[in-house]
């Protein structure tokens, strides 16, 4: 079961020499919701040399809120980069504070008075929700789909280049490499002994960087017991530069130093390292996988198999694995209708990746027997996505659906993919207790939509 990321380790990552690490840490602190992060994020917003890191710090402060966060954001309106100032303005807007978007223009610009802001219409609010969600799912550097009023979001060439998180990312964005499907690879011990420390490395990389990645991984052979194996898969979906990629290792009997690690995709490669110590008593082999998420969506798995040997016994020679990453669709959505905004957020996110989510209100035809057809749709799906919350835990319909899905576990062991977003996670029933429940980021606006829907029902 995925645990909440460690606050202190995220704070330490704000000082990491790599911009993408600082950027990801700022994002995770915003999602974590701990008010202790306000001051450290304020320092990053004021002092970090990388404009993209400062932008993500502004976003994180908008998620935390409070008078001090507003004060720090207002101070950042004087940032030297226009793209950062625009992010700060949007962050203040999320907190209900309207700011003239011409504030502190570039030195060569002449300040112009902003026209009065019109009252937002329903369509504009819905568009704002989708734009905010895209920033979380795909990262601020991802290309946004065209909107009806594209002129309001038009950026200059300089702005677009500044959004790139590093020079290398900008370089790959300008070449055909940025359109390649990335490769996911795991490097791990070929064999492990009881009660010994080891490392697992995971990469996302372009095919052109394979040799470089292999050379880096070789440097970790010693901490992998002196004998290394690898497994690799190619992504079945496009991954935009700047997208947040989460690696989640799941191996029975192994506890890693972190339940998950997040990287921001910047070609040609990014890596994450997990440390673990084996138990005193082990089975004949350790098998599992590394789940790969893009934003909140699982996009594939990397298989892992490690031999277990006695002290002094060498590992048997076994070939590396080259697996095919499944295109995990269609996805069946099992959810409480009281959590409809969360389901809709996922449905739109899957659609952006070209993946299909089966939802009762969209995929049941008029005249079909509701209950029977729903059960058929579960069997036709590649993934049973259980949206686990207090509402679904109490739902009779959700129970009927996941009880039916349990029938497929013998043939498809990872068919059921529960996700959760509430703190604390509602306790699962005994029948689901052995499954891996993955925590996923859900935007504040989506959470508010759930609350507003509850209030409407209460006052109806």
Strand arrangement in the largest pleated sheet: 7-3-1-4-10
Number of domains: 3
Question: Which structural class do the helices and strands define?
Answer: alpha/beta
Indicate the radius of gyration in whole angstroms.
23 Å
How does the major sheet shape up? 5 strands, mixed
Distance between the termini: 37 Å
Number of helices: 16
In CATH's first tier, which class of the largest domain applies?
Mainly Beta
Low-confidence stretches: 101-176
Q: In CATH terms, what is the architecture of the largest domain?
A: Sandwich
Q: Care to describe what's here?
A:
The model is unreliable at about 100-175 (pLDDT under 50). It is globular and about 65 Å long. It has 16 helices and 15 strands. It has 3 domains: about 5-110, Alpha Horseshoe (Leucine-rich Repeat Variant); about 180-320, Immunoglobulin-like (Sandwich), CATH 2.60.40.2660; about 330-460, Rossmann fold (3-Layer(aba) Sandwich), CATH 3.40.50. The strands form 3 sheets. A 5-stranded mixed sheet has the order 7-3-1-4-10, covered by helices on one side. A 5-stranded mixed sheet has the order 2-9-8-5-6. The longest helix is centred in the N-terminal third of the chain and has 17 residues, at about 120-140. α4 runs parallel beside α6 (about 80-95). A hairpin with a 2-residue loop joins β8 and β9. The protein is about 35% helix and about 20% strand. With about 450 residues, the protein is α/β, with parallel strands linked by helices.
């Amino acid at each position: 079961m995925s645990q909440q990321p460690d606050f202190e380790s995220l704070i330490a990552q704000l000082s990491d020499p790599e911009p993408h690490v600082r950027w990801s840490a700022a994002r995770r602190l915003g999602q974590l919701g701990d008010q202790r992060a306000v001051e450290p994020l304020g320092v990053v917003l004021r002092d970090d040399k990388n404009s993209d890191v400062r932008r993500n710090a502004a976003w994180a402060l908008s998620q935390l809120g409070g008078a001090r966060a507003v004060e720090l954001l207002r101070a950042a309106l004087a940032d030297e980069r226009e793209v950062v100032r625009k992010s700060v303005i949007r962050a203040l807007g999320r907190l209900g504070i309207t700011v003239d978007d011409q504030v502190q223009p570039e030195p060569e610009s002449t300040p112009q008075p902003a026209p009065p802001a019109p009252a937002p219409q329903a369509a504009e609010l819905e568009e704002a929700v989708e734009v905010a969600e895209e920033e979380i799912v795909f990262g601020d550097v991802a290309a946004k789909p065209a909107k009806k009023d594209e002129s309001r979001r038009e950026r200059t060439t300089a702005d677009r280049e500044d959004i790139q998180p590093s020079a290398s990312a900008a370089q790959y964005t300008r070449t055909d490499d940025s359109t390649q499907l990335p490769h996911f690879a795991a490097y791990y011990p070929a064999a492990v002994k009881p009660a010994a420390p080891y490392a697992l490395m995971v990469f996302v990389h372009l095919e052109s960087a394979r040799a470089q990645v292999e050379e880096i991984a070789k440097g970790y052979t010693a901490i992998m017991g002196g004998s290394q194996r690898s497994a690799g898969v190619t992504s079945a979906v496009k991954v935009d530069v700047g997208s947040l990629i989460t690696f989640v290792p799941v191996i029975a009997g192994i506890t890693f130093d972190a339940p998950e690690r997040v990287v921001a995709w910047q070609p040609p490669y990014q890596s994450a390292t997990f440390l673990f110590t084996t138990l005193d008593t082990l089975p004949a082999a350790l098998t599992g996988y590394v789940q790969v998420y893009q934003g909140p969506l699982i996009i594939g798995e990397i298989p892992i198999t490690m031999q277990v040997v006695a002290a002094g016994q060498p590992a048997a020679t076994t070939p590396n694995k080259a697996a095919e990453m499944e295109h995990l669709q269609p996805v069946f959505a099992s959810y409480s209708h009281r959590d409809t905004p969360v389901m809709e957020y996922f449905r739109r996110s899957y659609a952006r990746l070209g993946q299909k989510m089966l939802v009762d209100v969209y995929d049941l035809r008029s005249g079909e027997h509701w209950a029977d057809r729903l059960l058929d749709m579960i069997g036709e799906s590649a993934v049973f996505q259980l949206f686990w919350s207090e509402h679904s835990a109490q739902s009779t319909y959700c129970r009927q659906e996941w009880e039916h899905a349990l029938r497929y576990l013998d043939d498809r062991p990872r068919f059921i993919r529960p996700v959760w977003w509430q703190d604390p996670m509602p306790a699962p029933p005994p029948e689901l207790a052995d499954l891996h429940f993955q925590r996923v980021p859900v935007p504040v606006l989506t959470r508010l939509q759930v609350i507003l829907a509850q209030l409407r029902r209460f006052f109806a």
